[in-house]
Amino acid sequence: MHLDRLLLSAMATTLQSTSTTTKNGIHWFRRGLRLKDNPALIAAIEQNPKSLYPVYCLDGDSYNLRHCNALRANFLVECLQDLDHRLRERGSRLFVVSGDPVKKLPQLWEDWNIDFMTYDQDETGELYATQRDENIGKLAKKGNTNVELIAIASETLHPLHAYVSTSGKKALPISMRGFETLLQRTGPIAQPFEEPTCLPCPDSSIADNLYQVPKKATDLPWPRNTPRNQVTPIWGAEDCKNLTPIVQGGETHALQQLKSNLILKPKYVATYSKPQTSPTALTPSTTGLSPYLSSGCVSPRTVWWAIQEAVKKSNVKNPTKPPVSLEGQLLWRDFNYLMAHSAGENWRQMEGNKYCRHVPWDDDRVLLNAWKNGQTGYPWIDACMMQLKTEGWIHHLGRHAVACFLTRGDLWQSWEQGALHFESHLLDADYALNTFNWLWLSCSGFFYQYFRCYSPVAFQKKKDPSGMYIRKYLPVLAKLPDKYIYEPWKAPIADQKAAGIRIGVDYPKPIVEHTQISKENMSKMAAAYEAVKKAAGVDGPPKKKKQKTQKQSKIKF
DNA sequence: CACACGTTGGCTAG
DNA sequence: CTAGCCAACGTGTG
Questions:
Q1: Closest nt to A451 (CA→C1')?
Q2: Of residues A205, A201, A195, A204, the one with CA closest to residue A20
Q3: Quick one: how many helices (H) and strands (E) in chain A?
Q4: Closest CA to A87 of A259, A294, A250
Q5: Which residues touch strand C (CB under 7 A)?
Q6: How far is the CA of A269 from the C1' of C9 (A)?
Q7: 3-class SS at A503?
């Protein structure tokens, strides 16, 4: 069922010369919304079908559609429209159906007399996707149905099962360093597949106005038609106003962006260092490719090889290296996927998640909503949250700041809540990456130095002393002098008046006092860590103190 | 067991 | 601008 690369190339050589068969096939687009480096689509073409139907199934759970906001919904629509357009250029088209794929696909198998179905294998371990694919697998062999399923993993540099088998009986690494070793042992990264120049036609008797791609987000059937919907969506035409997404959806834009922000900037690529990129830049200082990777408009292997070529072309003597280099960002991505895969169905939550420490977070809706709505009284935090709302993106370091603030730093709210909010708002929302980063920032897993805490005032001052970023995303503060832009509550009444603002009325006073509360929270973290150790049942003699001679001489009983 | 190190901290003294 | 400290971390290697 799961073809590997070798088998696929063998098929390519044996099948290409044979004449068209009488088979009919579906290529089921789920995540990889692209033609380039889409091995499952290539596999479909190499079956030489009489008819091939490219299908996308709009359901509430894939793409987190049930909970996503207008920005994300728009982005998906753009991806589908572009895909349809590119398919039509190659003699085909996209067929969009609405509803649960487990119900809809078997119907299509019957209607179109389908013999095989190809799709990108989902290895994330996400419960919804795993169950969906298991159910499809069962139905494909049920009764008179005999649909051959061909699934190929192509959303990571190596298939995750390759990492697992390389690792063998050894536990998977839970650090980036360990992962780098594993990646090297797993072998070289495969070259991407070229995009097909033409595709087998679907049955031309199907009317063009059937299975059409939605034209705008408000056309989407979800979540209006689902009783399971718990969250009020914001997809009305009103809600689509004043949104300025950082990128437009679709493979065409993805490849343009890859070219302009990466291929044509070899020196930028070769000297890229993630921690040096600026979270306060008014246009992204990073490549802006993340939404395309998360939706599968571009494959990680395509990006990986573009990076290799750019670095070579740059002639930079000492190009940056993982984990900070651009290549390193893709390594992080695979590492995160591997962890999600290994964690299984509890990945998104604290309970039962083997990579997540138990921390007794509070559940305070007032604080949570203040954070969500950019009303914490800390301009840097609030500006980030407003950028998320209007553009669907925040720089990685901005995400660090707001995630730390919500969890261990200041508000002591569960990372799960923050992760949910991000998932519904980020154009690059990604099951594996989003959770990994929340675990990291909340010091629940993979990162443990909870005594390193971001200040909601100090960190970004270095990069943006006059607060241009804040002025853009919080226009209410735009006229404040530089001196108070990060701490408006310190502005004297006269300055507030001059800036046309009253702190506490037009913009809130800080909802917590950072200096004090972050210290308290560190103690809470220490206690939580201690409790985890105790629960692990480490009996016997207490851990020896570090032999720092100076310190020991000072500490007396 | 010891040790080095970890993609991106803050603060203060010099 | 940099070094060193801060109560407080764990992983992976040797």
A1: C8
A2: A201
A3: 22, 5
A4: A250
A5: A 173-175, 177-178, 181, 448-451, 519, 522-523, 525-526, 529, 533
A6: 33
A7: strand
Q: Measured in angstroms, what separates residue A278's CA from nucleotide B13's C1'? A: 28
More confident residue, A295 or A538: A295
Contacts of A439 (CB under 8 A, 6+ apart): A355, A356, A415, A445, A446, A447
Per-residue pLDDT at A242? 80
Whether omega before A323 lies within 30 degrees of 0, making that bond cis, reads yes
Q: Which residue is listed with tokens 């009764």?
A: A143
Residue A375: Cβ-neighbour burial (10 angstroms; 0-12, 13-18, 19+): middle
Query: Which residue type is seen at A533?
Result: K
The gap between A3 CA and B1 C1' (Å) is 47
One-letter amino acid at A1 equals: M
Q: How many angstroms is C1' of C6 away from CA of A415?
A: 26
State which residue has its Cα closest to the C1' atom of B5: A177
Q: How far apart are CA A77 and CA A116, in angstroms?
A: 27
Question: Which nt is closest to the CA of A547, judged by C1'?
Answer: B2
Separation of alpha carbons A59 and A128, rounded Å: 11
pLDDT the model gives residue A63: 81
| pLDDT of A33 higher than 70 | yes
A222 pLDDT above the threshold of 90: no
- pLDDT tens figures, A408-425: 999 999 999 999 999 999
A316 touches strand B (CB under 7 A): no
Q: Please check whether strand B approaches the CB of A354 to within 7 Å.
A: no
Please give the Cα distance from A278 to A232 (Å, whole number): 34
A551 bridge partner residues: none
Q: Round to a whole number and report the distance in Å from the CA of A530 to the C1' of C12.
A: 22
The string of pLDDT tens digits covering residues A154-192 is 999 999 999 999 999 999 999 999 999 999 999 999 999
Q: What pLDDT is recorded for position A220?
A: 74
